[in-house]
Amino acid sequence: MTPGPARYLLRLDDLCPTAPRARLDRLQGLMEEFRVCPILAVIPDNQDRELAMEPPDPDFWARMRALQAEGAVIGLHGYRHLCASRGRSLVPLHRFTEFAGVPEATQRNWMRAGLAILRAQGLNPRLWVAPRHGFDRVTLRVLHEEGIRVVSDGLARMPFQRGGVTWLPQQLWAPVEKPWGLWTILLHTHTASDALIDDLRAFLRHHAGQFMPAGQAMAEFGPKLPLTERLYEAAALLRFRQRQLRKRLSGR
Ligand SMILES: [Zn+2]
């Protein structure tokens, strides 16, 4: 990744048949208007009650297939989105996750079952999106065995190789202008407010040309991160954890 204007990826998380339809319509409208090909992180068999906001949409899977046909990249977003494990993640942003620390045989079973569900719906999952950033070296090994060689995670400023897979970092939870690097902006379909979607629209007006199709970013395999970027990554993780701690202490 050479210096120059920043490039952006858009990622939508927690996609499942009970995702709020009106919000998905708005987001899909933006993607079509500005020709953005996002990463769609789809939960194969959602059992997380917090994500069961509406009755299941019978057209959900057809919508995902249509978006995939238009260039969206499908991400395997865990298996059931039940975050009950306290294992330490390679991207330790949350205490409880679905995959980190889970025994290898179970991770393999969940991964295979999840991939089979998505494929049976006509989707081609091409990368891994861990619920709550929770995955470990075992997850990477299993992903590799299953032919998934890209993860969307990490706080570096450029794609890189680590643990046998390519990492497309995901560092933003709202649109933010950056001078250089590759930045993934993540929106959660269940909680994205109208104001946040308005912000995204305003950002796209100015920066739509800087958004990369996710498939193109996946093809740009970065090398190992240089030392300066590894230091930046460690500092970004520290800042994130300090923010979380401050939030917890202030009771929010
Ligand atoms: Zn999620």
Description of the molecule:
Helix 1 packs parallel to helix 5 (194-207) and helix 3 (104-120) packs across helix 4 (137-145). The chain is globular. Helices cover 37% and strands 15% of the residues. The protein has a 5-stranded parallel β-sheet with strand order 4-3-2-1-8. A 3-stranded mixed β-sheet has the order 5-7-6, with no helix packed on it. It is α/β, with parallel strands linked by helices. The longest helix is centred in the C-terminal third of the chain and has 23 residues, at 227-249. It has one domain (7-223): Alpha-Beta Barrel (TIM Barrel). The chain binds zinc ion (ZN). Residues 13-14, 77, 81, 131 line the site of zinc ion (ZN).
Key structural traits:
single chain; 252 residues; alpha/beta; TIM Barrel; five-stranded parallel beta sheet; three-stranded mixed beta sheet; 7 helices; 8 strands; 37% helix; 15% strand; globular; binds zinc ion
Give the secondary structure arrangement, pairings included.
Layout: E1 7-15, H1 21-34, E2 39-42, H2 60-69, E3 73-76, H3 104-120, E4 125-128, H4 137-145, E5 150-152, E6 160-162, E7 165-168, E8 182-188, H5 194-207, H6 214-219, H7 227-249
Parallel strand pairs: 1-2, 1-8, 2-3, 3-4, 5-7
Antiparallel strand pairs: 6-7
The chain binds zinc ion.
Short description:
By secondary structure, the protein is an alpha/beta fold. It contains 7 helices and 8 strands.
